[in-house]
Amino acid sequence: MRPILSIAGKEFRDDFRGRWTLAITGLFAVLALGIAYFGAAAAGRLGFVSFNATLASLTTLAAFVIPLIGLLIAYDTIVGERESGTLALLLSYPLSRAELIAGKFLGHSGVLAVATALGFGAAVVLIQLMTPEARTWSAWRHLGVFVGSASLLGASFAGMACLISALAREKARAAGLALLAWFVLVMLFDLVLLALLVFSGGNAMERALYPYLLLANPIDVFRLVNLVALGAGAGNDVFMSMTAAHAYPPALLVAAMLAWGFGPFLLALLAFRRQEL
After folding, report:
1. Model pTM?
2. Dihedral sign, CA of 260, 261, 262, 268?
């Protein structure tokens, strides 16, 4: 366990020295405050409005930004060491492949978790200070669910980046595959599902199956965990009606989020173990 923590600590410190963590935290805070303050501009109002509506908007924002950052921060985890010639040197120490990749995964996931908690958390706390009616136990519980699920979402894409990095032989190819993965999961996945529903006419069986197909995408699981918890009336009524929120037991969503949080890393571990240097 000590080698894993040592590698994780090194990756965490490297990300801090590279200003990654500070930049990500600042980006999250600025975007969160911007959405919270200007979110009602279309209705002719400025300022902080409903806490639940703000959190629903932040969920949509996080679903776009966190996956991209998770992929970019970790896509060169293995292939970067291989190209620089340090991978063989690292593995010549009393350090197994599993310990190496686990430490790197934990370090990058920790950076994303800290950035999420500090960036989004600080913004939401500020919003609560300016809107006393939002200072409720329910609001803090939703905030905890948001930060926890966002951290798992970051871990999911950090794990995907590790998998890509373990399989790719060049950093440029790894970067391209990481961006392709982001585009497919963030932009194309839901569009394809909606297109299938539209072209097929959306019969009863497909409408019953559609909510569960969303579980095949960690971004949609993240949305479901948060928006189903917020319920109707938080500006997400259309999403609730589309996904048949009653079909999702909380335990199922938590299990799916945990599976996505660690599943890609386990695949990366298997791939790295079987590869030659």
Report:
1. 0.85
2. positive
